[in-house]
Amino acid sequence: MNTKANSGEPARGRSRLVVGLVFLVFFVISFLTNILGPLIPDIITGFHVSLTMAAILPFAFFIAYGVMSIPAGFAVQRFGEKALLIVAFAAATAGAAGFARFPGYAMAVSSLFVIGAGMAALQVAINPLLRVAGGEEHFAFNSAFAQLIFGIASFLSPQVYAALIHGLDAPAEARTGLIALLGRLTPANLPWASIYWVFAAVTAACVVLFAVVRLPAIERRDDESAGTLAMYRQLARSRVVWSYFVAIVAYVGCEQGTADWMSPFLERYHGVDPHQGGADAVAYFWGLMTAGCLLGMVMLRLYDSRRVLFLFSLGAFVTLSLGLFGPTPVAVLALPCVGFFASIMWPTIVSLALNSVPQHHGPLAGILCSGIMGGALVPLLIGWLGDRLGSLRLGMLFLYVTFGIVLCVALWARPLVTNAVLRTASDTDRR
Asked: Measured between alpha carbons, how far apart are the two ends of the chain, in Å?
């Protein structure tokens, strides 16, 4: 549905349908992505692997972002959003169904890479699409709302996982409906693999949905396109671009490093059941991230985004410290609270990056999305350090480095355009 922009010019590709579908895609991406944390204790037990080998699974998933983000940008420019969405969901379906049907360590690594490649393609397709379909003037709000949906799905995913495990723990004759079907499809010694049948069904439904729905044509400006190799080379020569790329790597590493190792940490040091307390802790990590988004949206309307980023980074340091070194009641509460303070980091860093570069925003978005590979590198490094030092707690101390990098963004960022804030009457008078 086309509307008029505030300037009176015809709106380019405005569509509430597309905005709604983009929000749906955000939900599905989060639902699939953020289950890895609750699964790691089961992966270690079920496949009899070390911390490092367990961390290779999220590594396989997130490294796909580094491999696929920029090629996906070229693909969406050549074949269009609809084709890329269908192919991406089909890849995720194949990966999820493959792992669910043949649950083994080697299959898990390859399947998670395929799923991650699909999710990377979706991220590249939907972020510029949301800006165009929802309107540039609404992009900040729509992005924050998408982050809320992302957090809700992240909260629900561990809850669904816990419900499946609880249902499959019941005797076979007591199971009904979906639980009975999953019980027949899933090996008895790997009940947690049943969640991937659910993922396969969800992504297959999305393939059908995007195959039948008619998406309006989206016209992009030059700075919203994937760009050319020359544009990427120009951006690659910019110290500012590299700084924001490292910041994105660090942030996603913070997020996934905390979420992935939270449940194993609570089990190992506090005896928390990973199927109940551990899954709940991860769910509340993402739920509190949603709550943090709400507060962050208010604060970003009142204060400079760099100041907000600095304060939230300090909060993450405090709650991480309490979680790693506090007693059981404190750790169980504090580690999920890290998600609250991590909530505004992604949209703030991305907006600062886009507002710090005068052109080529499409290629820059592809470069920033490839930084999601931080979700591969940091959890793997934490696992490796945990094995080498003989202590997962010591391995998780690396999160101080990544959160420190995020905090430093608030100190050195010099955007060309700062975020709009509400002015009081006295502020207006002074101006």
From this structure: 40
CATH 1.20.1250.20 for the 16-425 domain, yes or no: yes
Angstrom distance (rounded) from CA 7 to CA 214:
28
Angle subtended by helix axes 139-169 and 345-354, to nearest 10? 150
- Give CA–CA dist 182/176, Å, rounded: 10
Q: What are phi and psi of 124, to 5 degrees?
A: -65, -35
Report the pLDDT averaged over residues 143-161: 81
Q: Please, which residues bridge with residue 4 across strands?
A: 10
One-letter identity of residue 223: D
Q: Lowest mean pLDDT: which of 229-243, 380-394, 408-422?
A: 408-422
| Backbone phi and psi for residue 47, each to the nearest 5 degrees, phi listed first | -105, -5
pLDDT-derived band at 4, boundaries 50, 70, 90: very low
Q: Across 54-63, 156-165, 198-207, which has the greatest mean pLDDT?
A: 198-207
Angle (deg, nearest 10), helices 305-325 and 399-412:
160
Buried b (16+ CB within 10 A) or exposed e, 200-222: bebbbebbeebeeeebeebebee
Query: Does residue 319 or residue 300 have the better pLDDT?
Result: 319
User: Rounded CA gap, 73 and 50, in Å?
Assistant: 36
Q: CA 298 from chain center: how many Å?
A: 22
Instruction: Pick from 61-75, 176-190, 380-394 the range whose average pLDDT is largest.
Output: 380-394
Distances (CA, A) of 111 to 81, 92, 152, 292: 24, 8, 25, 32
- What are the boundaries of each domain within the chain? 16-425
Q: Which amino acid is at 166?
A: H
Cα distance between residue 92 and residue 205, in whole Å: 11
Distance of alpha carbon 317 from alpha carbon 403, whole angstroms: 7
Q: What is the pLDDT of residue 43?
A: 84
